[in-house]
TrEMBL record:
Transmembrane segments: none
Domain named Glycosyl hydrolases family 39 N-terminal catalytic: residues: 12-293
Pfam families named among the record's database cross-references: Glyco_hydro_39
Keyword Nucleus set for record: no
Family: Belongs to the glycosyl hydrolase 39 family.
Protein name, entry field: Glycosyl hydrolases family 39 N-terminal catalytic domain-containing protein
Keyword annotations: Glycosidase, Hydrolase
Length: 324
């Protein structure tokens, strides 16, 4: 739900951005006195809006995707800007990186797997929006850092806490292994784009989605099990079918982020949530924050196809990597 003041602010921002683009196209350049100003790219921000509902965090991806759709459509509405690269300079679940969960309890999503699964599900939709609008989408930035000399797992929008990697950083590690070109990928449990733009992921079932890439000698498939509500859910089996594999044998590696893997936050809580961890505890936390592989093996490919079952807890993200 967007308040009237938020709607008004968003409308005014859209008008300002539109006016600015028009000025760059046909307005007077007050530096040169000529008409028009050069544009190399268009950059804008996009933010979601989590809140606390009955003591639990509820995410909201819809405002973020609406911001992106508006920016893409705006650029595509002018012949002079439709080919320009578009960069989402800040693309995040909400708007205050330095607001910890002590003052903003809705930001408790940041420490665990909710942040990582939201990131997977939302970043994938950016590519779908680019497909839909034909925008020249160059990339998006997560406006997140490491805040120095702060309490452990304080709930800032950061990728690490006191040098220990958080689950969300491992999603970006997964993205980093997805090289080459994006492939057509579909899931019978992935929420339609228009539904997520309208009302985020609020249905009875979670969003089990997919994003895939292929390079000369590799392929990578990311799958996730996401829902807006930070509540327990069933573990589900995603049967990942990969077709048109050009070789007879591949090296298969499966990476996963869930409660037991690639998750320093759960390990820290099991330690008793220490604010002054021992050197040994810090070593354990650092190790648990790394991206973990749960399976590495060679498999045979028959008729260019393989089917791999992947167990996904709610808010889990997995990456299936094939190398040949």
């Amino acid at each position: 739900m967007v308040s009237i003041s938020q709607e008004h602010e968003a409308k005014e921002l859209r008008k300002w951005t539109n006016d600015f683009i028009k000025h760059c196209i046909s307005g007077t350049n007050y530096a040169t006195g000529k008409i028009g100003s050069p544009m190399d790219a268009i950059l804008f921000h996009a933010k979601g809006s989590p809140k606390l509902v009955d003591g639990a965090v509820r995410m909201n991806m819809a405002p973020q995707l609406n911001d992106i759709q508006t920016g893409f459509n705006m650029a595509m509405s002018y012949p002079e800007t439709k080919e320009l690269p578009l960069i989402i300079g800040e693309s995040d679940p909400e708007g205050c990186a330095a607001c910890g969960m002590a003052t903003n309890p809705e930001n408790a999503y940041r420490n665990g797997t909710m942040y990582s699964s939201y990131t997977a599900a939302s970043f994938a939709r950016k590519y779908l929006l680019a497909d839909k609008t034909k925008a020249n989408f160059l990339g998006a930035v997560s406006w997140s850092f490491e805040f120095e000399n702060q309490p452990w797992f304080y709930g800032f929008r950061d990728l690490a806490t006191n040098g220990v990697d958080k689950p969300v950083l491992n999603v970006f590690r997964m993205f980093g292994m997805m090289t080459g070109t994006r492939l057509a990928a579909e899931s019978n449990r992935m929420y339609p784009l228009e539904e997520v733009i309208k009302s985020s992921v609020r249905g009875a079932q979670s969003d089990i989605g997919v994003l895939a890439t292929k390079d000369k000698k590799s392929a990578a498939i990311m799958v996730w099990n996401y829902h807006d509500d930070d509540k327990p859910g069933v573990t589900e089996t995603a049967n990942v079918t990969i077709e048109n594999i050009p070789v007879k044998k591949v090296n298969l590696t499966v990476y996963i982020i869930d409660k037991e893997n690639s998750n320093s936050y759960e390990v820290w809580k099991k330690m008793g949530s220490p604010q002054n961890p021992t050197p040994q505890q810090i070593n354990t936390l650092e190790e648990s924050g790394k991206l973990k592989s749960i399976s590495t093996k060679k498999i045979k490919i028959t008729s260019g196809k393989t089917i791999l079952p992947v167990q996904l807890e709610r808010q889990a993200v997995a990456l299936v990597k094939l190398d040949w």
